[in-house]
Amino acid sequence: MMKVSQHLWFEKDMEEAVRFYTSLIPGSAVEWVSAIPADTPSGPAGSVKLAGVTLGDQRYMAIEAGPLDPFNHSFSIIVGCDSQAEIDRLWSALSEGGSTEQCGWLRDRWGLCWQITPTRLGELMSDPDPAKAKRVTEAMLKMVKFDIAELEAAARG
Questions:
Q1: Which residues contact 75 (CB under 8 A, 6 or more apart)?
Q2: Within a 10 A sphere around the Cβ of 48, how many other Cβ atoms?
Q3: First CA to last CA across the chain, in angstroms?
Q4: Would you tell me which of 18, 50, 136, 141 could form a disulfide with 124, CB atoms 3.0–4.6 Å apart?
Q5: Rounded CA separation 121/82 (Å)
Q6: What's the order of all strands across the beta sheet hosting 99-100?
């Protein structure tokens, strides 16, 4: 059976980043960390590090191998949260030293893009009542960090 995982390329501090991420998301773990024992295009033996990581139910491979392409919005990690407290906790931790954007997006201090979203948002936006879905969508588009109570109020009209 094939296994699929995402790959994250860090310029530096990969181990710090993955340990931070796994401390925030329940059910996560750094499975292993190792250094490549041979010279590579990115540096001498031992200078390039790899890690196997599980964040929630997703598998990742991470590498620290110097500059290549910076992280961008083409790849982001989406975390669906059941409560406002979960959103607030992750938002605060991940945005520290980074930047925030509209619609639940943030960029952490390593440059990785995240979307911290309420699980309820998808339900509200796909409501069979198009007016309700539109109100929720319009409210969502005005938010930076999502506020579940405001989304629910928009749904009610």
A1: 6, 113
A2: 21
A3: 48
A4: 136
A5: 10
A6: 76-81, 113-118, 105-107, 99-100
